[in-house]
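Weekly modeling sync, notes
Attendees: S.R. (lead), two postdocs, one rotation student

Agenda item 3: backlog of single-chain predictions. S.R. asked that every request posted to the team notebook include the full sequence so nobody has to chase files. The rotation student volunteered to paste the first one in as an example of the format we agreed on. Action items at the bottom.

Example entry:
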Amino acid sequence: TATAESLCHLNPILDTSDILFVSVQSRFIRITEELTAHVRKHYSDMFILWGGPHCFFAPELSLEHADGVCYGEGDTAIIDFLQRYERKEAYWETGSMAFEVDGTTVINQPLPQLTDLDSLPMGDFFGEDHYCLERAELVPLDETRVLGYLSKFLAPMPSYITMASRGCPEKCSY
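Predicted structure, as returned to the notebook:
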């Protein structure tokens, strides 16, 4: 779990943000809820959008915490949402997303599946704008740190690592 003190390390990033997007995995739901509560308390005007595997299986439950939920592939849904939100249009009608509208849960129709995966950019896993909380300190998320996390969580138990993605990260053509 996160402490209030450790979550405050995120404030320099949150200070410059209007929208918080969180990719939620069920095994990290507690810390995601704590992060969301921190943002609600200190940044009450910030729009909070959850997505990721947890939301795919439980969009209604995710709406108990977030202002919106992307329950499907977000590649095009996020772009559509941001364009609508920025233009102050009906963002709550964005496909593959769910919202609370006037006290009613609205789960919009899913967008069509992408057929041209080559049109998508490679995943953005590391970079100067990627951070993680480590021992109550905000630190850059780099490849070494990610590999360290993987070995820490997987080494103590028998594991079988499966990479789930769209396409091959080695630029195979199939």
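Discussion: group reviewed the output briefly. Helices lie at 4-8, 11-14, 29-42, 53-57, 59-62, 74-86, 143-154.
Action items: rotation student to repeat for the remaining queue; S.R. to check formatting next week.
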